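Q: Please design a sequence for this.
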């Protein structure tokens, strides 16, 4: 993969991370480095975006009386969920369903 591809990949990953509910909305150097490592591993942007959606939905679908969770401050927070998504055998429709649910929850808050 060419460097141009790496730059675009990194941009897409970091933009999706920045927009994920529960994150600080800022990108640090360590996040850029991790995005480059994910590129080197060949992890598809769609896998990473699906992991963001899954993790954000899990955080938002907690009981109303549960104590609030802290803000996500690093892309590394999502590494276990990225690995989980890589191992999943579900259809892309599942993630579309979770995305729609997440959008409804975020809109209603």
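A: Design:
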């Amino acid at each position: 993969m060419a460097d141009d591809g790496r730059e675009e990949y990194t941009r897409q990953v970091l933009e999706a991370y920045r927009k994920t509910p529960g994150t600080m909305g800022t990108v640090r150097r360590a996040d850029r480095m991790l995005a480059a490592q994910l590129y080197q591993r060949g992890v598809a942007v769609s896998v990473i975006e699906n992991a963001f959606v899954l993790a954000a939905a899990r955080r938002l679908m907690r009981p109303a009386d549960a104590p609030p969770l802290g803000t996500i401050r690093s892309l590394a927070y999502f590494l276990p969920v990225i690995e989980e998504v890589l191992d999943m055998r579900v259809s892309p429709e599942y993630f579309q369903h979770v995305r729609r649910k997440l959008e409804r929850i975020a809109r209603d808050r």
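Q: Thanks. Anything notable?
A: DSSP finds five helices and no strands in the chain. The CA atoms of residues 57 and 102 lie 5 Å apart.
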